[in-house]
Amino acid sequence: MTTSPRLRSSLLWDDGTVVAVDQRALPREHRLLRLETVDQLIEAIRSLAIRGAPAIGLAGALGVALSAYRHRSGRMADEASVLADATRLAAARPTAVNLAWAIRRAVARLAAGPEAVLAEAMAMLDEDAAVNRAAVERAADLVESLIPDRPVRILTHCNTGRLATAAVGTALGAIIELRERRRVAEVLVGETRPLLQGARLTAWELGEAGVPYRLCVDSAAAAAMAQGMVDCVLVGADRIAANGDVANKIGTYGLAVAAARHGIPFVVVAPESSWDRELADGSGIVVEERDATEVTGFAGADVAPTGAAAFNPAFDVTPGELITAIVSEDQVFRPHTPRARA
């Protein structure tokens, strides 16, 4: 691992190595990881050094390319070995559908050799930036139509910026786009317990972009809405069911309930690759539960009694009926009126 100039992308390929921003080190250190094996890449995904649904999908595709080159024989790769690595990569984080989607795309090029697999992964990196830009502009247009008469006070949760994608971001990208349009009054950033992706990553990205923000204790978000401090909630998604139920970072469901109670628009921004249309609804989404030590300790120190158990799901599922709109690069989908698209 190295400390080096900041990448404009969270991921890149460098001479047979996957290079990624180590999101565990931010904001104190901008550190790059050089991942030379599939095992190293899987560990980076599991430990959240690489995180964000689009980013882990792209990392998975690069991982297939990494495996194809490592198992190369002549112009081709050993198919059984690469498929075994692809299966392990897909299992690294089960909730985000982008991971399996991107791996399938990369594996589909395996018969053409390692160069073809890498070309497909690199094409996905380029596509991700274009897709995000289209979704961001569509989402910003929607927010302006929902709150047309003043700068907007936005609440967001977790991190959905360029760190969570190849570039641009989703919900956070829309916030930065609104800022460029001079339509942001303030952003309340949920700290995102237990690993503080909001406090560490979103606040860092907003600061770099010059967007005014304040950190918000997760448990204070509903109170902020009750006090009239929030005009709109913008979040991302890790998986979207066919009916518009959305899996996202734990705490999203509670925000949606509070927003519905106070009549506040709740908007999800995510690429089409986050949709799992084979799932009728959110009841079929597998929610990853993470290690109790993420909750029972903080900054290397125990904060709970020895042996304390913990309920530590990484995600929750928000019913579509609580969502104002889901915005992708192609559409604005309103789950409570499924046929209405803009």
Keywords for this entry:
342 residues, alpha/beta, Four Helix Bundle (Hemerythrin (Met), subunit A), Rossmann fold, 2 domains, 7-stranded mixed β-sheet, 10 helices, globular, disordered N terminus, disordered C terminus
Description of the molecule:
This protein is α/β, with parallel strands linked by helices. The chain has 2 domains: 2-127, translation initiation factor eif-2b, domain 1 (Four Helix Bundle (Hemerythrin (Met), subunit A), Up-down Bundle); 137-333, 3-Layer(aba) Sandwich (Rossmann fold), CATH 3.40.50.10470. It has 10 helices and 19 strands. The strands form 5 sheets. It has a 7-stranded mixed β-sheet with strand order 9-8-7-10-13-18-19, with helices on both faces. The longest helix is centred in the middle third of the chain and has 33 residues, at 114-146.
Report the order of strands and helices. Answer: EEEEHHEEHHHEHEHEHEEEHEEHEEEEE
Shape: globular
CATH class of the largest domain: Alpha Beta
Q: Based on the structure, what is the oligomeric state of the protein chains?
A: single chain
Unreliable parts: 1-6, 338-342
Q: Which value, in Å, is the CA radius of gyration?
A: 20 Å
Please name the CATH architecture of the largest domain: 3-Layer(aba) Sandwich
Q: What number is the mean pLDDT?
A: 94
Largest sheet: spatial strand order: 9-8-7-10-13-18-19
